[in-house]
Amino acid sequence: MKPINTIVGSLAPLPRANVDTDQIMPKKYLKRVERTGYGEFVFAEWREADPQFVLNRPEYRNARILVTGPNFGSGSSREHAPWGLQDWGFEAIVTFSFADIFRNNCTKIGLLPVELSEKEVAWLMELAEADPSVQVEISLPDQSVTTEGFSAEFVIDPYTRWRLENGLDDIGLSLRHTDLIAEFEATRPSYLPSVTTG
Q1: pTM above the 0.85 mark?
Q2: Domains of the chain, each with CATH number or no CATH
Q3: What is the mean pLDDT of the chain?
Q4: What pLDDT band is residue 19 in, cutting at 50, 70 and 90?
């Protein structure tokens, strides 16, 4: 996955609480076998029902940061929800609480989950609604969110931050140990299938 250092972009405001993964990625779109191509289905039912839904509005179409309400990503553990958000073009999601499994699924693909205080999220939401063009900077090394007149810090555990800064998903972590894998494979009996590492 792509390493994360600094994300700079505009905000798309979604002032809704308890947005679950079925709303983010409706189940009727879970038929693909690839991890890509889900972006067009993000919030599909809301987008179809409401022409003024935030992602239908041209001024928010190129936003790189989604700012939203609490308990974002609740419901089922479907990985397709963060896949779709990332495929749409989002690089970070800012809220004041995530569902745990959803947050973990985001970090496994390089979609940065940022938790701020309720007051800070409300300030960013109002800013995004007032000025869709405003640019916000999220620094992973500094664990900060800044824009003119605003600065906030967020917490992320050191191991997850290290993985994101180095672009290491689960496969990438395994591939750091190719020598050990090859050494182990060399000791396996010949009647067992081999595993290639290169």
Answers
A1: yes
A2: 6-156 (3.20.19.10), 168-198 (no CATH)
A3: 91
A4: very high
149 contacts 130 by C-beta, under 8 angstroms: no
pLDDT over 90 percentage in the chain: 79
- What is the rounded CA–CA span in Å between residue 9 and residue 164? 18
Are 37 and 87 contacting, i.e. CB atoms less than 8 angstroms apart? yes
Comparing CA positions, the residue from 70, 89, 87 lying closest to residue 14 is 70
pLDDT, one tens digit per residue, over 142-176 is: 999 999 999 999 999 999 999 999 998 766 666 56
Residue keyed to tokens 């839904």: 53
Quote the tokens at residue 84: 């779709």
Burial class (CB in 10 A: 0-12, 13-18, 19+), 101: middle
8 Å CB contact between 143 and 162: no
| Residue 92, C-beta contacts closer than 8 angstroms, at least 6 positions apart | 7, 64, 65, 66, 111, 112, 113, 114, 138
CA atoms of 98 and 93, how far apart (whole Å): 10
Q: How far apart are CA 64 and CA 92, in angstroms?
A: 7
Interval 52-73 mean pLDDT:
97
CA distance 69 to 58: 22
- Give the model's pLDDT for residue 194: 65
